Amino acid sequence: MKTVFVTVGTTSFDELIESITTSEAVQALKARGYERLVLQVGRGSLLPDADSCPHIRLEAFRFKDSIAEDIKQADLVISHAGAGSCMETLGAGRPLLVVVNDKLMDNHQLELARQLHMDSHLLYCTCSTLTETLRTMDLSVLKPFIPGQPKHFANFLDKALGVQ
């Protein structure tokens, strides 16, 4: 069963959970053959019921010890732009769509998402453009991110965050 896993990490990102469970977003997922939507909602105020999205199998939880298995089983991961969530997903070799929380004050997440996108490791959008991105995305353009090179990753972060 083609699965989308959505994660907000340890944060609260209700806007992402609201956006991905709209009928338009669910229809865009269904049109791409996805049948199951698994939501990790973190500290958010929303915890959608299984029957809240009638056209897709929905599961939702707040936290668990590890989301590694959820990531591994997903055909697509949709994540907030936290560095840990991005690196875990890319390290697992899963296609990644990052949804930047543009309501954050310093919006550092955009820098990370933009750089990883420029290097063709992920696609990114905001909640307001999520449905359109789901309709038009081409996951075949993504290139693997080779993990296990801490120096390269440190240099990448410096570059992405404008430290150099």
From TrEMBL:
InterPro entries per UniProt: Alg13-like, Glyco_trans_28_C
Residue intervals of the Glycosyl transferase family 28 C-terminal domain: 3-143
Keyword Kinase appears in the UniProt entry: no
GO-annotated molecular function: N-acetylglucosaminyldiphosphodolichol N-acetylglucosaminyltransferase activity
Pfam family, one: Glyco_tran_28_C
Cellular component aspect of the GO annotation: endoplasmic reticulum
GO process annotations (BP): dolichol-linked oligosaccharide biosynthetic process
Enzyme Commission number(s): 2.4.1.141
Major localisation: endoplasmic reticulum
Subcellular location: Endoplasmic reticulum
Entry keywords, A to Z: Endoplasmic reticulum, Glycosyltransferase, Transferase
Family in the record: Belongs to the glycosyltransferase 28 family.
Protein name per the record: UDP-N-acetylglucosamine transferase subunit ALG13
Organism: Sparus aurata (Gilthead sea bream)
Organism classification: Eukaryota, Metazoa, Chordata, Craniata, Vertebrata
